[in-house]
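Last lecture ended with a question: if I hand you only a sequence, what can you say about the shape of the protein? Today we answer it with a concrete record. The protein is PAS domain S-box-containing protein/diguanylate cyclase (GGDEF)-like protein. Below, first the input exactly as provided, then the predicted structure, then a couple of comments.
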Amino acid sequence: MLSSSPSLSLALFQHLPDAVFLIDPHSSDILDCNAAALHQVGMERSELLSHSVLSLQKDVLGMPQWASLAQAIRAAPQGLVFVGQHQHKSGAEVPVEVCTSAFEHEGREYFVSIARNISQRLALEQDLHDRDMQLHYALTQASDGLWDWCLETNEVFFSPQLKRMLGYGPHEMRPSLESWSENVHPDDREFVQRVLHEHLSGQRERYEVEYRLRNRNGHFIWVHDRGRVCERDAQGAPRRVVGMVHNITDRKKTEQALQELASHDALTGLPNRREGEQCLQRHLERCRQLGTTLGVCVFDVDHFKAINDQFGHAVGDEVLRQIARVLGAQVRPTDCLSRWGGEEFMVVCADTRLDDLLVLGGRLRAALAQVDWPTAAVLGPVTCSFGMAVFPHHGSTAQALFMAADSALYRAKAKGRDRVEAAVAAALSDPA
Ligand SMILES: Nc1nc2c(ncn2[C@@H]2O[C@H](COP(=O)(O)OP(=O)(O)OP(=O)(O)O)[C@@H](O)[C@H]2O)c(=O)[nH]1
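The predicted structure:
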Protein backbone atom coordinates (compact mmCIF):
# COMPACT_ATOMS: atom_id res chain seq x y z
CA MET A 1 0.00 0.00 0.00
CA LEU A 2 2.91 2.34 0.88
CA SER A 3 4.66 1.68 -2.41
CA SER A 4 1.55 2.69 -4.27
CA SER A 5 1.49 6.03 -2.45
CA PRO A 6 4.80 7.98 -2.83
CA SER A 7 3.28 10.98 -1.05
CA LEU A 8 2.55 8.82 2.02
CA SER A 9 6.12 7.43 1.91
CA LEU A 10 7.40 10.99 1.85
CA ALA A 11 5.12 11.99 4.72
CA LEU A 12 6.34 8.98 6.69
CA PHE A 13 9.97 9.96 6.02
CA GLN A 14 9.32 13.53 7.10
CA HIS A 15 7.50 12.52 10.26
CA LEU A 16 9.86 9.87 11.55
CA PRO A 17 10.81 10.91 15.08
CA ASP A 18 14.49 10.01 14.50
CA ALA A 19 16.76 12.10 12.31
CA VAL A 20 17.24 10.46 8.91
CA PHE A 21 19.94 11.47 6.44
CA LEU A 22 20.34 10.28 2.84
CA ILE A 23 24.05 10.33 2.03
CA ASP A 24 26.14 10.02 -1.13
CA PRO A 25 28.64 7.25 -0.20
CA HIS A 26 31.34 8.67 -2.48
CA SER A 27 31.29 12.37 -1.65
CA SER A 28 29.80 11.98 1.88
CA ASP A 29 27.36 14.79 0.96
CA ILE A 30 23.93 14.87 2.51
CA LEU A 31 21.41 14.46 -0.32
CA ASP A 32 18.26 14.67 1.72
CA CYS A 33 17.06 14.64 5.33
CA ASN A 34 13.83 14.74 7.27
CA ALA A 35 12.41 17.37 9.66
CA ALA A 36 13.80 15.61 12.74
CA ALA A 37 17.30 15.81 11.24
CA LEU A 38 16.97 19.57 10.66
CA HIS A 39 15.67 20.03 14.18
CA GLN A 40 18.46 17.95 15.65
CA VAL A 41 21.24 20.07 14.16
CA GLY A 42 19.26 23.36 14.23
CA MET A 43 19.79 24.10 10.50
CA GLU A 44 17.76 24.98 7.42
CA ARG A 45 17.66 22.50 4.52
CA SER A 46 19.86 24.83 2.48
CA GLU A 47 22.53 24.80 5.20
CA LEU A 48 22.60 21.05 5.31
CA LEU A 49 21.96 19.66 1.84
CA SER A 50 25.03 19.22 -0.40
CA HIS A 51 27.27 19.58 2.65
CA SER A 52 29.37 16.69 3.80
CA VAL A 53 27.92 14.64 6.59
CA LEU A 54 31.40 14.94 8.13
CA SER A 55 30.58 18.57 8.95
CA LEU A 56 28.15 17.19 11.55
CA GLN A 57 30.67 14.78 12.98
CA LYS A 58 33.60 15.38 15.25
CA ASP A 59 34.67 11.78 15.30
CA VAL A 60 35.26 11.17 11.57
CA LEU A 61 38.07 13.29 10.20
CA GLY A 62 38.66 13.69 6.47
CA MET A 63 37.90 11.65 3.38
CA PRO A 64 40.37 8.77 3.91
CA GLN A 65 38.63 7.99 7.19
CA TRP A 66 35.22 8.36 5.47
CA ALA A 67 36.31 5.88 2.80
CA SER A 68 37.13 3.22 5.34
CA LEU A 69 33.92 3.99 7.24
CA ALA A 70 31.97 3.59 3.99
CA GLN A 71 33.60 0.18 3.50
CA ALA A 72 32.53 -0.85 6.97
CA ILE A 73 28.96 0.33 6.27
CA ARG A 74 28.85 -1.72 3.05
CA ALA A 75 30.15 -4.74 4.95
CA ALA A 76 27.38 -4.55 7.60
CA PRO A 77 24.15 -5.91 6.12
CA GLN A 78 22.15 -4.96 9.25
CA GLY A 79 23.68 -1.50 9.25
CA LEU A 80 26.70 -0.15 11.06
CA VAL A 81 25.86 1.17 14.49
CA PHE A 82 28.07 3.58 16.37
CA VAL A 83 27.63 6.16 19.09
CA GLY A 84 28.98 9.64 18.45
CA GLN A 85 28.24 13.34 18.62
CA HIS A 86 26.40 15.54 16.14
CA GLN A 87 27.31 19.17 16.06
CA HIS A 88 24.35 21.48 16.59
CA LYS A 89 24.48 24.85 14.83
CA SER A 90 24.71 26.54 18.26
CA GLY A 91 27.95 24.65 18.88
CA ALA A 92 26.32 22.26 21.34
CA GLU A 93 27.05 18.59 20.94
CA VAL A 94 24.15 16.17 20.59
CA PRO A 95 24.90 12.59 21.62
CA VAL A 96 23.56 10.24 18.93
CA GLU A 97 23.39 6.56 18.19
CA VAL A 98 23.80 6.28 14.43
CA CYS A 99 22.75 3.31 12.34
CA THR A 100 23.90 3.58 8.73
CA SER A 101 23.25 1.12 5.96
CA ALA A 102 23.86 0.99 2.25
CA PHE A 103 21.23 0.40 -0.46
CA GLU A 104 20.91 0.68 -4.22
CA HIS A 105 18.17 2.52 -6.05
CA GLU A 106 17.93 2.67 -9.82
CA GLY A 107 21.55 1.65 -10.22
CA ARG A 108 22.97 4.15 -7.74
CA GLU A 109 24.32 3.50 -4.26
CA TYR A 110 23.07 5.44 -1.24
CA PHE A 111 23.67 5.45 2.50
CA VAL A 112 20.80 6.03 4.88
CA SER A 113 21.71 7.16 8.37
CA ILE A 114 19.28 7.14 11.25
CA ALA A 115 20.68 9.27 14.08
CA ARG A 116 18.77 8.86 17.33
CA ASN A 117 19.28 11.53 19.99
CA ILE A 118 20.35 9.56 23.08
CA SER A 119 20.93 12.42 25.52
CA GLN A 120 18.00 11.31 27.71
CA ARG A 121 19.12 7.72 27.65
CA LEU A 122 22.67 8.72 28.58
CA ALA A 123 21.36 10.87 31.46
CA LEU A 124 19.32 7.91 32.64
CA GLU A 125 22.31 5.60 32.33
CA GLN A 126 24.44 8.10 34.22
CA ASP A 127 21.78 8.28 36.89
CA LEU A 128 21.68 4.51 37.16
CA HIS A 129 25.44 4.39 37.25
CA ASP A 130 25.52 6.99 40.03
CA ARG A 131 22.96 5.01 42.00
CA ASP A 132 24.96 1.86 41.43
CA MET A 133 28.01 3.64 42.73
CA GLN A 134 26.10 4.90 45.77
CA LEU A 135 24.75 1.43 46.46
CA HIS A 136 28.18 -0.06 45.97
CA TYR A 137 29.59 2.56 48.34
CA ALA A 138 26.85 1.91 50.90
CA LEU A 139 27.45 -1.83 50.71
CA THR A 140 31.19 -1.78 50.81
CA GLN A 141 32.49 1.47 52.22
CA ALA A 142 29.94 3.12 54.50
CA SER A 143 30.52 2.52 58.17
CA ASP A 144 26.98 1.17 58.59
CA GLY A 145 26.20 -2.44 57.74
CA LEU A 146 23.14 -3.28 55.67
CA TRP A 147 20.81 -6.26 55.74
CA ASP A 148 18.00 -7.33 53.46
CA TRP A 149 15.63 -10.02 54.72
CA CYS A 150 13.28 -11.98 52.47
CA LEU A 151 10.52 -13.32 54.75
CA GLU A 152 9.41 -15.98 52.25
CA THR A 153 12.75 -17.78 52.20
CA ASN A 154 14.10 -16.40 55.48
CA GLU A 155 17.26 -15.56 53.58
CA VAL A 156 19.13 -12.50 54.70
CA PHE A 157 21.68 -10.60 52.67
CA PHE A 158 24.38 -9.22 54.98
CA SER A 159 26.52 -6.48 53.45
CA PRO A 160 30.31 -6.94 53.49
CA GLN A 161 30.54 -4.04 55.94
CA LEU A 162 28.09 -5.70 58.33
CA LYS A 163 30.16 -8.88 58.16
CA ARG A 164 33.33 -6.89 58.71
CA MET A 165 31.72 -5.20 61.74
CA LEU A 166 31.20 -8.66 63.24
CA GLY A 167 34.65 -9.88 62.29
CA TYR A 168 33.64 -12.07 59.32
CA GLY A 169 35.10 -12.14 55.83
CA PRO A 170 32.93 -11.29 52.79
CA HIS A 171 32.24 -14.96 52.06
CA GLU A 172 31.52 -16.03 55.62
CA MET A 173 28.24 -15.88 57.60
CA ARG A 174 25.37 -17.96 56.23
CA PRO A 175 22.73 -15.74 54.59
CA SER A 176 20.04 -16.89 57.01
CA LEU A 177 18.02 -15.21 59.73
CA GLU A 178 19.60 -17.51 62.32
CA SER A 179 23.06 -16.09 61.59
CA TRP A 180 21.69 -12.94 63.15
CA SER A 181 19.12 -14.10 65.71
CA GLU A 182 21.39 -16.69 67.33
CA ASN A 183 24.00 -14.03 67.98
CA VAL A 184 21.77 -11.50 69.69
CA HIS A 185 22.69 -11.36 73.40
CA PRO A 186 20.37 -13.72 75.33
CA ASP A 187 19.31 -10.87 77.65
CA ASP A 188 18.32 -8.68 74.69
CA ARG A 189 16.73 -11.37 72.50
CA GLU A 190 13.19 -11.18 73.78
CA PHE A 191 13.11 -7.38 73.61
CA VAL A 192 14.57 -7.28 70.09
CA GLN A 193 12.15 -9.95 68.82
CA ARG A 194 9.24 -8.08 70.35
CA VAL A 195 10.15 -4.78 68.66
CA LEU A 196 10.62 -6.61 65.35
CA HIS A 197 7.30 -8.40 65.71
CA GLU A 198 5.54 -5.14 66.58
CA HIS A 199 6.91 -3.55 63.40
CA LEU A 200 6.00 -6.52 61.20
CA SER A 201 2.47 -6.56 62.60
CA GLY A 202 2.06 -2.84 61.97
CA GLN A 203 2.06 -1.69 65.61
CA ARG A 204 5.30 0.19 65.11
CA GLU A 205 6.21 2.60 62.34
CA ARG A 206 9.71 1.18 62.16
CA TYR A 207 11.97 -1.42 63.73
CA GLU A 208 14.60 0.39 65.77
CA VAL A 209 16.49 -1.04 68.70
CA GLU A 210 19.83 -1.04 70.51
CA TYR A 211 21.21 -4.38 71.62
CA ARG A 212 24.29 -6.53 71.90
CA LEU A 213 25.43 -8.73 69.03
CA ARG A 214 28.06 -11.44 69.26
CA ASN A 215 31.01 -11.08 66.92
CA ARG A 216 33.16 -13.82 65.51
CA ASN A 217 35.44 -13.83 68.58
CA GLY A 218 32.48 -14.46 70.84
CA HIS A 219 32.56 -10.91 72.25
CA PHE A 220 29.50 -8.71 72.20
CA ILE A 221 29.40 -5.36 70.46
CA TRP A 222 26.60 -2.84 70.95
CA VAL A 223 24.64 -2.01 67.82
CA HIS A 224 21.91 0.39 66.80
CA ASP A 225 19.73 -1.54 64.36
CA ARG A 226 16.89 0.02 62.40
CA GLY A 227 14.84 -1.25 59.52
CA ARG A 228 11.55 -1.10 57.69
CA VAL A 229 9.28 -3.30 55.63
CA CYS A 230 9.94 -2.30 52.01
CA GLU A 231 7.79 -4.83 50.18
CA ARG A 232 4.40 -6.39 50.93
CA ASP A 233 2.29 -9.03 49.21
CA ALA A 234 -1.19 -8.44 47.77
CA GLN A 235 -2.72 -8.98 51.23
CA GLY A 236 -0.36 -6.41 52.76
CA ALA A 237 1.75 -8.97 54.63
CA PRO A 238 5.47 -8.05 54.84
CA ARG A 239 7.63 -9.77 52.24
CA ARG A 240 10.90 -7.96 52.55
CA VAL A 241 12.53 -5.89 55.27
CA VAL A 242 15.73 -3.89 54.88
CA GLY A 243 17.77 -2.29 57.59
CA MET A 244 20.99 -0.74 58.71
CA VAL A 245 23.26 -1.59 61.63
CA HIS A 246 25.55 0.94 63.30
CA ASN A 247 28.25 -0.04 65.78
CA ILE A 248 27.65 1.99 68.96
CA THR A 249 30.01 0.14 71.28
CA ASP A 250 32.13 3.22 71.95
CA ARG A 251 29.10 5.36 72.74
CA LYS A 252 27.71 2.67 75.05
CA LYS A 253 31.04 2.42 76.86
CA THR A 254 31.05 6.18 77.41
CA GLU A 255 27.44 6.09 78.63
CA GLN A 256 28.22 3.23 80.98
CA ALA A 257 31.29 5.06 82.29
CA LEU A 258 29.18 8.18 82.93
CA GLN A 259 26.49 6.07 84.56
CA GLU A 260 29.15 4.43 86.72
CA LEU A 261 30.50 7.88 87.69
CA ALA A 262 27.03 9.09 88.62
CA SER A 263 26.13 6.05 90.69
CA HIS A 264 29.44 4.97 92.16
CA ASP A 265 31.92 6.38 94.61
CA ALA A 266 35.20 7.25 92.90
CA LEU A 267 37.40 6.36 95.90
CA THR A 268 36.16 2.87 96.73
CA GLY A 269 34.25 1.95 93.55
CA LEU A 270 31.23 1.06 95.68
CA PRO A 271 27.73 2.31 94.88
CA ASN A 272 27.38 5.84 96.27
CA ARG A 273 24.81 7.12 98.74
CA ARG A 274 22.17 7.88 96.09
CA GLU A 275 22.55 4.39 94.63
CA GLY A 276 22.47 2.93 98.18
CA GLU A 277 19.21 4.77 98.91
CA GLN A 278 17.65 3.51 95.68
CA CYS A 279 18.83 0.00 96.44
CA LEU A 280 17.31 0.12 99.93
CA GLN A 281 14.03 1.40 98.45
CA ARG A 282 13.98 -1.31 95.75
CA HIS A 283 14.71 -4.13 98.17
CA LEU A 284 12.17 -2.82 100.63
CA GLU A 285 9.39 -2.79 98.04
CA ARG A 286 10.25 -6.27 96.94
CA CYS A 287 10.36 -7.66 100.52
CA ARG A 288 7.07 -5.93 101.29
CA GLN A 289 5.48 -7.60 98.26
CA LEU A 290 6.93 -11.02 99.08
CA GLY A 291 6.28 -10.65 102.81
CA THR A 292 9.94 -11.32 103.68
CA THR A 293 12.33 -9.55 106.05
CA LEU A 294 15.05 -7.09 105.08
CA GLY A 295 18.21 -6.32 106.98
CA VAL A 296 19.97 -2.96 107.07
CA CYS A 297 23.47 -2.69 108.47
CA VAL A 298 25.12 0.69 108.92
CA PHE A 299 28.77 0.87 109.98
CA ASP A 300 31.34 3.54 110.59
CA VAL A 301 35.13 3.37 110.99
CA ASP A 302 36.27 3.97 114.53
CA HIS A 303 38.57 6.91 115.23
CA PHE A 304 39.17 7.42 111.56
CA LYS A 305 40.18 11.02 112.13
CA ALA A 306 43.23 9.75 114.00
CA ILE A 307 44.34 7.79 110.92
CA ASN A 308 44.16 10.91 108.78
CA ASP A 309 45.86 13.01 111.40
CA GLN A 310 48.71 10.56 111.99
CA PHE A 311 49.28 9.22 108.50
CA GLY A 312 47.78 11.76 106.17
CA HIS A 313 44.76 11.71 103.88
CA ALA A 314 46.31 9.38 101.29
CA VAL A 315 46.73 6.59 103.85
CA GLY A 316 43.22 7.34 105.15
CA ASP A 317 41.96 6.88 101.58
CA GLU A 318 43.79 3.59 101.24
CA VAL A 319 42.28 2.35 104.51
CA LEU A 320 38.78 3.20 103.19
CA ARG A 321 39.52 1.33 99.94
CA GLN A 322 40.76 -1.66 101.92
CA ILE A 323 37.64 -1.71 104.10
CA ALA A 324 35.47 -1.66 100.97
CA ARG A 325 37.45 -4.55 99.48
CA VAL A 326 37.58 -6.70 102.58
CA LEU A 327 33.96 -6.22 103.66
CA GLY A 328 32.68 -6.32 100.07
CA ALA A 329 34.07 -9.87 99.87
CA GLN A 330 32.05 -10.87 102.96
CA VAL A 331 28.57 -9.96 101.70
CA ARG A 332 26.43 -11.99 99.27
CA PRO A 333 26.29 -10.88 95.62
CA THR A 334 22.63 -10.02 96.17
CA ASP A 335 23.46 -7.74 99.12
CA CYS A 336 24.19 -4.12 98.39
CA LEU A 337 27.22 -2.53 100.05
CA SER A 338 27.38 1.25 99.50
CA ARG A 339 29.49 4.10 100.77
CA TRP A 340 27.08 6.33 102.62
CA GLY A 341 29.57 9.14 103.03
CA GLY A 342 32.93 9.90 104.74
CA GLU A 343 33.81 6.75 106.67
CA GLU A 344 30.25 5.44 106.91
CA PHE A 345 28.89 2.48 104.90
CA MET A 346 25.61 0.61 104.55
CA VAL A 347 24.75 -2.97 103.61
CA VAL A 348 21.22 -3.89 102.52
CA CYS A 349 20.45 -7.61 102.80
CA ALA A 350 17.23 -8.99 101.35
CA ASP A 351 15.46 -11.94 103.04
CA THR A 352 17.52 -11.48 106.19
CA ARG A 353 16.34 -11.75 109.80
CA LEU A 354 17.93 -10.03 112.79
CA ASP A 355 19.88 -13.09 113.96
CA ASP A 356 21.33 -13.53 110.41
CA LEU A 357 22.24 -9.86 110.46
CA LEU A 358 24.03 -10.13 113.79
CA VAL A 359 26.00 -13.09 112.41
CA LEU A 360 26.96 -10.98 109.41
CA GLY A 361 28.09 -8.18 111.78
CA GLY A 362 30.30 -10.64 113.62
CA ARG A 363 31.77 -11.86 110.34
CA LEU A 364 32.53 -8.32 109.17
CA ARG A 365 34.31 -7.51 112.45
CA ALA A 366 36.31 -10.72 112.23
CA ALA A 367 37.31 -9.96 108.63
CA LEU A 368 38.62 -6.53 109.65
CA ALA A 369 40.64 -8.13 112.41
CA GLN A 370 42.45 -10.31 109.87
CA VAL A 371 43.80 -7.39 107.86
CA ASP A 372 47.41 -6.28 108.14
CA TRP A 373 46.68 -2.56 108.43
CA PRO A 374 49.45 -0.06 107.52
CA THR A 375 48.47 2.01 110.55
CA ALA A 376 48.27 -0.86 113.04
CA ALA A 377 51.72 -0.37 114.61
CA VAL A 378 50.73 3.09 115.82
CA LEU A 379 46.96 3.01 116.15
CA GLY A 380 46.16 -0.69 116.52
CA PRO A 381 43.90 -2.57 114.07
CA VAL A 382 41.23 -0.65 112.21
CA THR A 383 37.80 -1.42 113.61
CA CYS A 384 34.22 -0.43 112.83
CA SER A 385 31.03 -0.03 114.83
CA PHE A 386 27.86 -1.60 113.47
CA GLY A 387 24.17 -0.78 113.85
CA MET A 388 21.54 -3.25 112.64
CA ALA A 389 17.84 -2.88 111.88
CA VAL A 390 15.35 -5.24 110.26
CA PHE A 391 12.14 -4.70 108.30
CA PRO A 392 9.40 -4.89 109.46
CA HIS A 393 10.38 -5.02 113.18
CA HIS A 394 12.37 -1.78 113.37
CA GLY A 395 10.63 0.27 110.69
CA SER A 396 8.43 -0.02 107.65
CA THR A 397 9.95 2.75 105.50
CA ALA A 398 13.48 3.16 104.16
CA GLN A 399 14.00 6.27 106.24
CA ALA A 400 12.73 4.66 109.45
CA LEU A 401 14.91 1.60 108.90
CA PHE A 402 18.01 3.67 108.25
CA MET A 403 17.37 5.84 111.30
CA ALA A 404 16.90 2.74 113.46
CA ALA A 405 20.18 1.23 112.24
CA ASP A 406 21.96 4.58 112.65
CA SER A 407 20.73 4.92 116.24
CA ALA A 408 22.02 1.43 116.94
CA LEU A 409 25.38 2.44 115.43
CA TYR A 410 25.45 5.51 117.66
CA ARG A 411 24.88 3.22 120.65
CA ALA A 412 27.71 0.94 119.51
CA LYS A 413 30.02 3.99 119.42
CA ALA A 414 28.82 5.11 122.82
CA LYS A 415 29.40 1.67 124.30
CA GLY A 416 33.05 1.73 123.32
CA ARG A 417 33.14 1.04 119.50
CA ASP A 418 34.21 -2.14 117.62
CA ARG A 419 30.87 -3.80 118.32
CA VAL A 420 27.55 -4.71 116.80
CA GLU A 421 24.29 -3.27 118.16
CA ALA A 422 20.75 -4.05 117.08
CA ALA A 423 18.01 -1.45 116.85
CA VAL A 424 15.47 -1.38 119.66
CA ALA A 425 12.02 -1.60 118.21
CA ALA A 426 10.24 -0.02 121.15
CA ALA A 427 12.44 3.06 121.07
CA LEU A 428 11.59 3.91 117.47
CA SER A 429 9.13 6.27 115.94
CA ASP A 430 8.27 5.39 112.34
CA PRO A 431 7.78 8.47 110.12
CA ALA A 432 5.60 7.60 107.16
N1 LIG B 1 41.09 10.12 104.05
C1 LIG B 1 39.79 10.42 104.04
N2 LIG B 1 39.19 10.87 105.13
C2 LIG B 1 37.87 11.15 105.12
C3 LIG B 1 37.11 10.94 103.97
N3 LIG B 1 35.83 11.26 104.23
C4 LIG B 1 35.82 11.68 105.53
N4 LIG B 1 37.05 11.59 106.06
C5 LIG B 1 37.49 11.93 107.41
O1 LIG B 1 36.92 11.03 108.34
C6 LIG B 1 37.02 11.63 109.60
C7 LIG B 1 35.78 11.35 110.37
O2 LIG B 1 36.00 11.83 111.65
P1 LIG B 1 34.93 11.76 112.78
O3 LIG B 1 33.59 12.08 112.24
O4 LIG B 1 35.43 12.63 113.91
O5 LIG B 1 34.90 10.28 113.21
P2 LIG B 1 36.00 9.33 113.75
O6 LIG B 1 37.32 10.00 113.91
O7 LIG B 1 36.02 8.10 112.89
O8 LIG B 1 35.47 8.98 115.15
P3 LIG B 1 34.27 8.00 115.51
O9 LIG B 1 33.40 7.83 114.32
O10 LIG B 1 33.57 8.70 116.61
O11 LIG B 1 34.88 6.73 115.93
C8 LIG B 1 37.21 13.14 109.36
O12 LIG B 1 38.54 13.48 109.71
C9 LIG B 1 37.05 13.28 107.88
O13 LIG B 1 37.88 14.29 107.32
C10 LIG B 1 37.79 10.47 102.80
O14 LIG B 1 37.22 10.25 101.73
N5 LIG B 1 39.11 10.20 102.88
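Comments.
1. The pocket of guanosine-5'-triphosphate is lined by residues 267, 300-305, 308, 313, 316-317, 320, 342-343, 413, 417 (CB under 6 Å).
2. The longest strand covers residues 93-105.
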